[in-house]
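Worked example

This section walks through a single chain of length 367. The input is the sequence exactly as stored; nothing has been trimmed or padded.
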Amino acid sequence: MTTEEINRPDPGAADVDEQAVEEFALRLVDVITGGLLTPLLEIGRRTGLFESALDGPATSAELADRAGLQERYVREWLGAMVSAGIFEYAATERRYWLPVEHAAVLTGSGVENLAPMAHLVTALTRHTDEVARCFASGGGVPYAAFLPEIREVMDGLWQPTVRDLLVQEILPMAPGLPDLLTRGARVADVACGSGNVAVTLGRAFPRSRFTGYDRDADGLEVARTRAAAHGLDNVEFVLADAAELSPGTSYDAVVVSYALHDQARPAQVLAAIREMLVPGGTLLMYEPRVSSDLADNVGNPFAPMTYAISVLHCLTVSLAEGGAGLGTAFGEQVALDLLADTGFGPVTVHESAADPGSAVFVTHRPA
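Given that input, the structure is written out below as tokens.
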């Protein structure tokens, strides 16, 4: 489409399509309504209302009693849930229930439960004023400003994915890697956060040794506590900036999970990882599955959320350090360019069947 072909109507002109205006206004109301409902989803998750609803239909008083909450608040919350189509309501009996199909994605500890995403939204939107100021002044909101809440959020989001998918589905995407870990290997988890990946791998592959690197000291303490709780002596955690890694140890494999796009110096991170790997060593990188070209992302149901998360967190924490500002939606093509520029070999990109919004990049340090 050329510049001349782009329609830039005058809102007061006679040829404005009033039906299109009305349709867009209704869509915008839906967007705003969704924004208001998201904190209520988080309330439902945090207070146990969704889980309490699994016991069957209830009045507002009965549901409040199950969850140990105040009935008046629960009743108003239910009003929002019913009118939004999340709960069902029998007016004659004044009873509410959560359909089993809805409960499947709002309850439980598996990857199917989307309710923890609401916590991510509320944690990020808390910093809207700070991010908005950066639009004019430049710079960004530092990662430390999001702590400790963002650590808790990401920990809650990652635990089911790592527990249910990492060993069973993601590792086998790197041919030979599960067998190597079974025999015994050294693996680094770069930007490891609270240690979900390293601890999970440490439990699954007792003959291998795992080292997690991160610069969040408090997060590493959580990771060490988690490893100790499982009695793991093959897992350790080291305080370090991912862009400045020079551990003096060679690794057979490195794992990076949803972390490259946050980095201020992503190219330096990948270069450091390449140097850490033995010749022929494997890099397994997990990132959002989007294109680097906006035009390709139109129609991708995950794209609006990906760009929004980027503006509110991933982009701004990088720019706060004067960084590259890759952003969450940096995309497959940029990822491939970065890997090539930092000396990695051919890359295979996989889609996770259970997590279609993510891509798994598998590559190696040339032998």
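What to look for: The chain has 16 helices and nine strands.
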